[in-house]
């Protein structure tokens, strides 16, 4: 499985809405969210908040199975399914980042991985 890790800056005044979107995905939109994850090959996704001196960050960690991350991102960007459209609109409204343009969120770089098969001493 592949990991996609994104940190989205939550725009000022939208902190409570970020939590509300997460609650909706667990309650009133649960079935649609489950279908969304199945269609996009997501094995697991966790959302975290982190308060920083620059404001609130929404951190998403997603495990993708069955297809390369880049393909999953392209499929998500192109999708206009009702739930997908709702979720992308929520992300854009909360963070200013447009998932139709940047489906994998802000670019990240893995600079450390503790996995036994990856961890090697620095040179």
What does this structure look like?
- By secondary structure, this protein is α+β, with helices and mostly antiparallel strands.
- It has a single domain (2-95), classed as Alpha-Beta Plaits.
- Helices cover 37% and strands 24% of the residues.
- The chain contains 4 helices and 3 strands; from the N terminus they run E-H-H-E-E-H-H.
- It has helices spanning 15-26, 30-39, 69-78, 82-95, and strands at 2-9, 42-52, 55-64.
- It has a 3-stranded antiparallel sheet, covered by helices on one side.
- It is globular.
- It starts with a strand and ends in a 28-residue tail after the last helix.
Question: How would you describe this structure in keywords?
Answer:
single chain; 123 residues; alpha+beta; Alpha-Beta Plaits; 3 strands; globular
Task: Provide a concise account of the structure shown.
With 123 residues, this protein is of the alpha+beta class.
SSE blueprint and pairings:
Blueprint: E1 2-9, H1 15-26, H2 30-39, E2 42-52, E3 55-64, H3 69-78, H4 82-95
Antiparallel strand pairs: 1-3, 2-3
């Amino acid at each position: 499985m592949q990991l996609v890790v994104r940190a989205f800056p939550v725009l000022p005044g939208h902190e409570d809405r970020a939590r509300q979107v997460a609650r909706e995905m667990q309650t009133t939109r649960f079935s649609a969210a489950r279908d969304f994850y199945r269609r996009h090959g997501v094995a697991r996704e966790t959302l975290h908040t982190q308060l920083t001196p620059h404001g609130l960050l929404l951190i998403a960690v997603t495990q993708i199975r069955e297809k390369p991350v880049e393909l999953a991102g392209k499929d998500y960007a192109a999708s206009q399914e009702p739930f997908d459209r709702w979720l992308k609109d929520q992300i854009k409204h909360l963070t200013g980042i447009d998932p139709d343009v940047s489906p994998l969120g802000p670019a990240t770089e893995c600079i450390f991985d503790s996995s036994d098969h990856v961890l090697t001493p620095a040179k």
